[in-house]
Write a structure and sequence with these properties.
There is one protein chain. This protein has a 44-stranded parallel beta sheet that branches. It is elongated and about 115 Å long. By secondary structure, the protein is mostly beta strands. The chain is 3% helix and 42% strand. The protein is built from two helices and 71 strands.
Amino acid sequence: MRLWVLALLVISLVAADAATYYVRTDGNDANPGTADTPAGAWKTFGRIRLAGLGPGDVVNIAAGTYDEAQTAAYTFFAAGVTVRGSTPVRPVIQRMSLEFDGLADNWVLENLVIDAQLVFEDIITLRLGVQNFTLRGCDLLKASNANADSLPGGCLAIEAVYGLVVESCNLILEPGGTAATNAGQFTLATRSGFGPSQNWSILNSQFALIPPTSSASNAGGNISLRDGLSNVLIEGCTFALSTREHIWADAPLDTLNFTYANWTVRRNGFLDTTRVTQVYIANPNLLINWVWENNLFKNSRNAAFWLAGGVTEGVRRGTIVDGLRLVGNVFENIGVGTALLTNDNILLDDVEFAPTQGRSTVISNNRFMNDRGPTYGGWGIWIAANGPGPTITENVFDRIREACILVGGSPYTNTGSPSSGLQNTVISGNTVITNTYGGVVLRHNVAGTEIAYNRNTTVENNVILDAAQYGVSIESLYSVNPVVRFNDISGCGAGIRTSGPATIRGNEVIQALITARAGIWLANVGAAPDVSGSIVAYNVTAGCNGYGIRCATELTDDIATNVDVFNNTVVSNVLGGILLGNSGIDCYNNIVAFHASAGLVYSASSLGLVGYNLLYNVPSGGVDYLGFPGGTTPFAGDITGQNPQFQSLFGLDFHLRSNSPAINAAAVRAGASLLPGGGDMGAFPTGTVSAGVSPAAWELYR
């Protein structure tokens, strides 16, 4: 109702009563202010507040320096006023602070330089109820360093405002002297206890906090938000040097407090935080429809983008995310050390994904770079969460120190059971270039004795090069039903490792470098694993320093039931082809060739279902079988002494020529038996698995 009445009032009064006034350095406050002459113009900015201005009035301020020498803020109650400085040389107004009362709507300040000269802790204050405030082409400089932490402020202090435009402005905090930046000092801040704000546009502006060179400041920052903020556009801005966060949103831990809905943040530069994270959203807030596109994050001391979770009074709470897009951003040189929870590029830490209305979380087409060497930086993307998982696709990771992508469940939750965990995450089409840990890691996060599951994650079509430890590593029994498929992995310490049940199929692993590992490794991670039910099929492993495929969980011989290793092509691995190091592993339809050591190696206590493998290792100086009980080899259906006839061994093209003995030599698994008629051996069959399966269905499975 107030908006409607005010709109009618503005329409009725502007045409009849609007006036234009002038301020000049050679004017006089005794003048009427209505002429742009020394005899007609006012002399000070302060004269404006005594002029009885109203809707539609315009005040033009000429170039020059105006020292207001205030001791208290100028307060305005009128609505609909525009104060416009000259261009291209703008007026500089010193030692001035402005307050706008809750009825002072529709104000416009243009082309002004307001230099508080370290006198006022807040340069502009918008009181509760202000609507439609515009700051365009203005510089707000040198607020004092006197803010109390409970009353944040600085260049622009806001209780709550509906409708804010900050365009082509510079908001610069430079406290001066030797005092450290105060914890409550920000270039732009909302204050708690006044309710949410809405409808902000922050465009083509610069925000910076320049700490005193003689003081090791660890407080202050650029934008501080409390009580919620919705319908926001932040575009084309530069967030330059700051001691603390560029954007920070807080909330008490005891309840879900604030809503931050419909944010679009694009084409901004987030640069040089010297103490902490660049964007930090503290729990427990609700984020709805967040879009962050084509931004540059560079030189953050800690994380670049952090959504936080936490615990209070035994209750676990995390930020709730209902739609988040991180697309097309560049992350460069994030993190000064190697702390796993503070030096990450994107850190979604103990959040709850709760999408509605078709929204989801997408992290896509971002580039992550680190050119400072392997002693700097944490993870590329760290996600510990509950709910429907994100899609992480088409990102590039260049020399990231820790794993490029870590995905896991979390016991921190606002609703539902933490054991439900993270669900249906897709990690697809990403490129990893040289990092010191792993490309993709699936892990669960544990607090105390609680378990958080990571369910149905798909890792597919990624290219992972030169990861020093692992290409893909599944490091938890509680990663349920992960699928690792169609990835190209080369030059890593190990290609694919799993310590829990997994489906690993259609991958190409070339040159896994650590001898004690393998191209594909069913292995222990910390505690005794259970890889029962795993499938390793249609993979290529070649040129690895260890085994091509290593099934050896090592801590126990028993926890590997119903493991199937079939239709793999395993070539020229230094330690051997396939190690059956656990009892009961089924191994069939594989091509194991050109090893100078052994093709199939057995080191368990009981055989699984073995047969219908092509073994061609004697001509390269190796043996086909090693460690099997006497008289059991060769197994039924095995082919030995015949070259598999790859298209190009040295060209790493392991498709079969038409004269390959592996064609139509594979078996069909029928319960506890292997029967002829299973199509081709190896990872690249030329036909169908059997006459009863259509080519289309076969390719879908492959």
